[in-house]
């Protein structure tokens, strides 16, 4: 009696129990492995009676995340079986265990065709389900005729399935659309609700694939409206009613379809029908609200009459006031759509929307923030920004970042006065300075520097804020920069403002304030800014030179090379032999040209010495460093023009804010810097070879379109091997969708050799970027230029893109 | 179009999953984990909608089980899919007579069959409980 008992395999129930009894992941793996082995073994036995049980177990195993490929062929065998239960389990296994990428799938086409022509409706149904769920394009093509035929089957059970299978076929093989297009009116008029609903699905699918044939379907709008009418007017049959609404799913589908086939101007009967739905649908239950929501969206999509629009906006207003967060979420969502067409209508709900900013639910807050941002204009910016800042105090970090970004943008775009602009940014910086993007800090600095009447006020305010709070990096940077530039106002002026008096500071207080930002735990970038502020203060407040020297000296031993070098240089600069040059050198920064986002005219109130004639911006640090040196050694015969022959493309201007002392990597050639160890200044003779050097750095945009941007930042890493170029390729995502599977391939001419390090990631979020390194050796350097042919592949929304581009904007003798 | 329907319990164990777009097993496991974590982090009164990667996610908790639907589409009627989740739960409830997590787990193939009657190719196929269950019992009799 032992033998037959052994034949009996574990039941699914027992397998689940065994898995649940496992205490560790390793135990679980062992149980699954053992079971998988038994299932595999059992498949070998052709006369095995428990195949379907094995498939059920495989479903479970797969759901736990283990591979089940070995069961695939078994599913095919089960499908071909004449036993009904086995066939059913086989089809289930087929749709769940296989996917359209598996080659074995092809083998089932024949069985499916046989089943579709079966006399048993259930068997036809199974085959259609499988086709609709996993068929490949090839299978779709093979079985298209059979499916088309089944769309007119006399049983609605088959018709509804065949219709959805049709949707699969047109998606996989768009060229077969014509075959199904003809069936559309028939299914739309079907007496079974559910067939109509699936007919709508098919039609929506066709329109999605070929939006240009939308026109052809406008003729059906009468049909659709009639179907909708029938639906609203039928006496409630309990079978089709959900939450007091007759077949809400069908209503939603029909209304959605209306928005696609309304044509240039919706017919009067469609408008009437929508108005009727909008007024008569019962809003007490979710089902009714789903219909209302769809109705509102369709009204907004089509060119509706203003009366209809008002109706729609009012429904959304009602949703917005509802206590149910789901309704508020969809209301915000659709108002976001409406705001692009009809700003005024949305403005009416401003108060409610702003209230949503303090909702307990972050999903609501995020939507509300987006919408609030859209509502800001010159007339209400003060009020809305004030409220947004109030919410900033309580916001959690995750939300803070989004809020700050929008807030800063709004301030920048709509600020009525510069004073208000500065005050608002300062409040944001004080509350959440660490979340403020670098660009905002830079643009605020620009405002201060370009508005002389604001300078004294700003530096006082910033200094006071800094003394209270050195934790917000954005605030620290802006404050340090201003103190460096305009520190003289701090000692000389006492200001009266509306909210009290801003006292003049003693030199000591100022230095102490700066010192607070230079604690050992402070970020290096803060210390860099602090150093520069200090050296600038040495001319603005000469009384404090001793304390300044002390603070700078502390950084001579800094671990960060940049800090160390700067500290050494500045200490040298404080020496008495540079007295005459120090003043002009540490003049205020010139007003740099501004990023186009903000249109502030540059006034040349100060005409600093460092300003170069006719050069709008100082594009990179290497260049600027040279400028200082030229200035220091201006007795030397270095021709600035020759050094400036570089062909750089201007970088975003904000980078030049502090680029005089920027922390970007230094040029690799022996720059004439002050020797940090001995304090010596290199002898003038050393400078002569400068004149001949090819541009060391070269940055430019190698490729650009509406989705991505490819920047090349080229350097010559080895001064004595100029044929070698190091190119850092930065690819950024400009569109609002995720880019995945990014691949860059390149080809070069024979005189070039190159190697490529692949990127760390192949996907980019909107606004994100990836970086790659390319090494290029130009064997004919000086004779032939560098040119690269690039091929760029990536995928957006599972649509692959491929682009070709030739990059030849390298300098001629690079 | 629906990309996936998941039934996941509070411990993060998947009890039923159907995917209508191709994803590898490991991608599925990662997605399921991330989604449960997101759902768990949300409170009772908060809305039932999420945005996760390219999907609009509509979820609802019934006792210990999260019903999660992911949709890859620009314009989703979230409320309608929420209603559909409820419809699915009611159908399962009627079929299993007071459904609980264990019923679905121990009868996974049956749960799949019910779902197959309701969703196909990412489209809602049928929402009428009587028709769905009538069909299933007819099939079961045949077997």
Structure notes:
- The complex is a heterodimer of chains A (814) and B (143).
- By secondary structure, chain A is an alpha+beta fold.
- Chain A has 36 helices and 12 strands.
- With 143 residues, chain B is of the alpha+beta class.
- Chain B has one domain: Beta-Lactamase (2-Layer Sandwich), CATH 3.30.450.60.
- Chain B is built from 5 helices and 7 strands.
- In chain B, strands 2-1-5-4-3 form a 5-stranded antiparallel beta sheet, sandwiched between helices.
- The longest helix of chain B has 19 residues, at 78-96.
- The chains are: A alpha+beta (814), B alpha+beta (143).
- The interface between A and B is large, with 68 and 54 residues.
List the topology elements.
The complex is a heterodimer of chains A (814) and B (143).
Chain A lengths: L1 H6 L4 H10 L3 H20 L6 H13 L8 H9 L3 H14 L11 H8 L4 H14 L2 H14 L5 H17 L4 H5 L2 H5 L4 H17 L4 H4 L3 H13 L7 E2 L2 E2 L1 H14 L6 H13 L5 H16 L4 H16 L3 H14 L4 H5 L2 H7 L5 H14 L5 H14 L2 H18 L3 H15 L5 H13 L1 H17 L4 H20 L2 E3 L2 E3 L4 H10 L7 H17 L4 H10 L6 H14 L4 H7 L35 H12 L7 H4 L54 E7 L3 E8 L8 E10 L5 E10 L3 E6 L11 E10 L9 E9 L2 E9 L7
Chain B lengths: L1 E8 L4 E6 L5 H16 L8 E4 L2 E8 L2 E7 L6 H19 L4 H6 L1 H11 E2 L2 E2 L4 H14 L1
Antiparallel strand pairs in B: 1-2, 1-5, 3-4, 4-5, 6-7
Helix pairs in contact in B: 2-4, 4-5
Main location (chain B): membrane
Subcellular location (chain B): Endomembrane system
Protein name (chain B): AP complex subunit sigma
């Amino acid at each position: 009696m032992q033998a037959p008992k052994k034949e009996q395999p574990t039941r699914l129930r027992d397998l689940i129990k065994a898995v649940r009894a496992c205490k560790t992941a390793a135990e679980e793996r062992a149980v699954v492995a053992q079971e998988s082995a038994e299932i595999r073994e059992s498949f070998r036995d052709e006369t095995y009676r428990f195949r379907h049980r094995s498939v059920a177990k495989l479903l479970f195993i797969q759901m736990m995340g283990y591979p089940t490929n070995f069961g695939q062929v078994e599913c095919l065998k089960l499908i071909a079986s004449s036993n009904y239960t086995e066939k059913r389990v086989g089809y289930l296994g087929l749709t769940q265990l296989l996917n359209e990428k598996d080659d074995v799938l092809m083998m089932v086409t024949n069985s499916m065709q046989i089943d579709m022509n079966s006399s048993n409706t259930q068997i036809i149904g199974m085959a259609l389900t499988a086709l609709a769920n996993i068929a490949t394009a090839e299978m779709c093509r093979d079985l298209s005729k059979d499916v088309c035929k089944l769309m007119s089957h006399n049983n609605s059970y088959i018709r509804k399935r065949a219709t959805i299978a049709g949707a699969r076929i047109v998606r996989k093989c768009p060229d077969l659309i014509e075959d199904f297009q003809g069936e559309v009116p028939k299914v739309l008029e079907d007496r079974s609700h559910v067939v109509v609903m699936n007919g709508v699905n098919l039609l929506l699918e066709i329109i999605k694939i070929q939006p240009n044939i939308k026109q052809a379907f406008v003729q059906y709008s009468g049909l659709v409206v009639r179907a909708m009418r029938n639906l609203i007017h039928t006496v409630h049959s309990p079978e089709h009613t959900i939450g007091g609404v007759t077949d809400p799913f069908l209503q939603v589908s029909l209304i959605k379809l209306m928005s696609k086939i309304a044509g240039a101007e919706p017919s009067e009967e469609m408008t009437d029908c929508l108005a009727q739905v909008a007024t008569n649908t019962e809003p007490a239950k979710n089902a009714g609200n789903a219909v209302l929501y769809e109705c509102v969206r369709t009204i907004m999509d089509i060119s509706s009459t203003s009366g209809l629009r008002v109706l729609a906006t009012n429904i959304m207003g009602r949703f917005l006031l509802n206590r149910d967060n789901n309704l508020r979420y969809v209301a915000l969502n659709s108002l976001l759509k409406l705001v692009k067409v009809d700003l005024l209508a949305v403005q009416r709900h401003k108060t409610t929307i702003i209230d949503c900013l303090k909702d307990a639910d972050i999903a609501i807050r995020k939507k509300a923030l987006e919408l609030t941002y859209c509502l800001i204009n010159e007339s209400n910016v003060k009020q809305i920004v004030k409220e947004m800042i109030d919410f900033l105090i309580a916001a959690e970090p995750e939300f803070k970042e989004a809020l700050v970004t929008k807030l800063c943008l709004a301030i920048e775009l709509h600020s009525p006065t510069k004073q208000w602009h500065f005050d608002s940014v300062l409040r944001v910086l004080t509350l959440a300075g660490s979340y403020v993007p670098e660009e905002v800090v830079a643009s605020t600095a620009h405002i201060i520097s370009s508005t002389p009447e604001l300078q004294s006020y700003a530096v006082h305010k910033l200094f006071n804020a800094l003394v209270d709070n050195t934790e917000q990096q954005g605030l620290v940077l802006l404050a340090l920069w201003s103190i460096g530039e305009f520190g003289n106002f701090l000692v000389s002026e006492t200001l009266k403002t509306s909210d009290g008096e801003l006292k003049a500071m003693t030199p000591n207080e100022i230095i102490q304030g700066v010192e607070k930002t230079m604690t050992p735990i402070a970020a290096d970038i803060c210390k860099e800014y602090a150093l520069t502020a200090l050296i600038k203060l040495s001319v603005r407040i000469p009384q404090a030179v001793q304390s300044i020297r002390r603070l700078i000296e502390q950084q001579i031993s800094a671990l960060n090379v940049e800090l160390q070098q700067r500290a050494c240089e500045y200490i040298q600069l404080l020496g008495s032999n540079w007295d005459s040059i120090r003043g002009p050198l540490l003049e205020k920064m010139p007003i740099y040209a501004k990023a186009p986002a903000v249109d502030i005219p540059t006034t040349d109130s100060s005409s600093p010495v460092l300003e170069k004639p006719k050069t709008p911006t100082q594009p990179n640090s290497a260049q600027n460093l040279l400028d200082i040196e030229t200035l220091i050694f201006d007795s030397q015969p270095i021709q600035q023009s020759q050094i400036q022959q570089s062909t750089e493309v201007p970088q975003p201007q904000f980078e030049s804010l502090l680029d005089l002392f920027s922390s970007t990597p230094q040029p690799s050639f022996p720059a004439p810097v002050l020797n940090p160890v001995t304090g010596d200044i290199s002898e003038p003779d050393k400078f002569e070879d400068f004149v001949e050097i090819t541009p060391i750095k070269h940055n430019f945009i190698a490729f650009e379109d509406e989705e991505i941007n490819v920047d090349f930042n080229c350097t010559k890493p080895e001064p004595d091997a100029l044929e070698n170029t190091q190119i850092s390729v930065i690819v950024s995502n400009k569109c609002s969708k995720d880019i995945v599977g990014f691949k860059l391939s390149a080809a070069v001419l024979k005189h070039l050799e190159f190697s490529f390090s692949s990127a760390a990631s192949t996907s980019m979020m909107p606004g994100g970027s990836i970086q790659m390194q390319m090494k290029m050796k130009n064997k004919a350097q000086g004779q032939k230029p560098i040119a690269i042919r690039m091929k760029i592949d990536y995928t957006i929304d599972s649509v692959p893109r491929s682009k070709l581009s030739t990059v030849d904007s390298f300098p001629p003798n690079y | 179009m629906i990309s996936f329907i998941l039934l996941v319990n509070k411990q993060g164990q998947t009890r039923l999953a159907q995917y209508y777009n191709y994803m590898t097993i490991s991608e599925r496991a990662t997605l399921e984990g991330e989604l449960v974590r997101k759902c768990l982090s949300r409170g009772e009164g908060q809305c039932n909608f999420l945005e996760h990667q390219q999907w609009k996610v509509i979820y609802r908790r019934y006792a210990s089980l999260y019903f999660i639907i992911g949709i890859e589409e620009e314009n989703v009627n979230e409320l309608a899919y929420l209603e559909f989740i409820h419809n699915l739960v009611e159908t399962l409830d009627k079929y299993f007579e007071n459904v609980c997590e264990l019923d679905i787990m121990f009868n996974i193939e049956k749960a799949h069959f019910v779902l197959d009657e309701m969703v196909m190719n990412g489209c809602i196929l049928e929402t009428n409980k009587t028709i769905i269950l009538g069909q299933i019992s007819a099939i079961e009799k045949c077997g």
